[in-house]
Amino acid sequence: MRQSQLFTKTRKEAPSDEVAKNAELLIRAGYIHKEMAGVYSYLPLGLRVLSNIENIIREEMNALGGQEIKMATLHPSEKWKQTGGWETVDVLFKLQSRTEKEYALGQSEEEIVTPIAQEYVASYKDLPVAVYQIGQKYRDELRAKSGILRGREFGMKDMYSFHESQQDFDRFYAIAKEAYLKVFTRAGLDAKVTEATGGSFSEKLSYEFMVLTDAGEDDIVYCPSCTHCANAEVTKVKEGGTCPKCGKGVLAKARAAEVGNVFDLGQKYPKAFGFTYKDKEGREQTPVVGCYGIGTTRLMGTIVEVFSDEKGIVWPKSVAPFGVHLISISGASGEDVKKEADALYTSLRQKGIEVLYDDRDLRPGEKFADSDLLGIPTRVVVSEKTLKENKFEVKDRKTGSISMLSLPDFLLRLPLIS
Ligand code: ATP
Ligand code: MG
């Protein structure tokens, strides 16, 4: 993509009411646009990042056997009344049509997915089954103060699994937990897993996936020596105490953002809808259900919180909007530089590399500042100086290290750097 054609431009300041670092950087760099508190639009660069995140999740959910669907987000109130959620879910947005019919906006989709599954699951032979979707959710959050970490409209991947027995659910739950850890690792993050009771859903076991960042809203107590981790609100053990799991580590306390969680929903939703299946003996049984959420937009914001410096964003390669930021700096020999940069742009694209090519007629300082703000992992500069040496200047956004490389050397190293 030629930067001269890009729909967005960078800006010096974020909106004055925007205090969260993630939103401030993403807005200044042109990834997102703020509509109002807690509601953002995703622009070309932002959509590229979000799609990369979604594709990582999609691959891991497909590997688990999840089948992708897209459910309605405008819900009939009747289904929410049937489960009691109409009265009890405080964040539910309720709408009334001009004919006074009532609707809810999807804040989670148990009310929709359960009756769908009920249509297709008749016998034990149809189980287990898992479906998921990636899309918008709406919640009437009291405070939307952490940029895209807590929105009133936001992106979520939600999966629902249906099982014959608690035992089969437990089996799937364990592999889903591992798949979640893979997702976060692939997105460049180190997620810790807390065990907690399920809050409003049920008192059953749930896992929360937490990433350490001061921008988060949770406090966790964790062991630096093993995987022990708990939400500070629920846990009996305290900071400074000895780890109850390994008996060695000294527990530490830290702020964290919940990027995902998984719940054992038990039989609550099938019971609400009278959903049963026939077991091997032909008896009616109620399935056991699990739900598995990842906040896709919160994940994107968390990545920015964790990977940024005073100059801007530093995207992990796996989610970056482009692999290479190519910058031409034309001085007196402008035409030669342009020719060389154009040729490199073409040959990188032919090799399947995603390139943002800054072909704009701007001062070098402005181009470099924009490049640091955008945070593409590898920057390649073509200038009079590099032309003279018959090399390119290659800079790593993360480490800041610069090397002068010939075209063959650069191409050789590309699989490692982008
Ligand atoms: P939280 O405790 O942060 O409100 P939750 O327990 O309500 O989260 P779920 O309903 O299970 O979360 O949603 C699944 C995931 O969706 C969460 O783990 C989080 O990553 C994300 N999420 C939840 N609420 C929001 C929101 N308002 N804005 C952005 N992401 C959210
Ligand atoms: Mg919530």
UniProtKB/TrEMBL annotation:
User: A Gene Ontology CC term for this entry?
Assistant: cytosol
Q: Which domain of life is it from?
A: Bacteria
Give the PROSITE patterns listed for this entry: AA_TRNA_LIGASE_II
Instruction: Give the Gene Ontology MF terms in alphabetical order.
Output: ATP binding; proline-tRNA ligase activity
Q: What is its EC number?
A: 6.1.1.15
Q: Name one Pfam family in it.
A: HGTP_anticodon
Q: Which InterPro entries match?
A: aa-tRNA-synt_IIb (IPR002314), aa-tRNA-synth_II (IPR006195), aa-tRNA-synth_II/BPL/LPL (IPR045864), Anticodon-bd (IPR004154), Anticodon-bd_dom_sf (IPR036621), Pro-tRNA-ligase_IIa (IPR002316), Pro-tRNA_synthetase (IPR050062), ProRS_anticodon_short (IPR044140)
> Any idea where the Aminoacyl-transfer RNA synthetases class-II family profile domain is?
38-316
tRNA processing as UniProt keyword: no
Catalysed reaction, written as an equation: tRNA(Pro) + L-proline + ATP = L-prolyl-tRNA(Pro) + AMP + diphosphate
Q: Name one GO biological process term.
A: prolyl-tRNA aminoacylation
| Annotated keywords | Aminoacyl-tRNA synthetase, ATP-binding, Ligase, Nucleotide-binding, Protein biosynthesis
Q: What is this protein called?
A: Proline--tRNA ligase
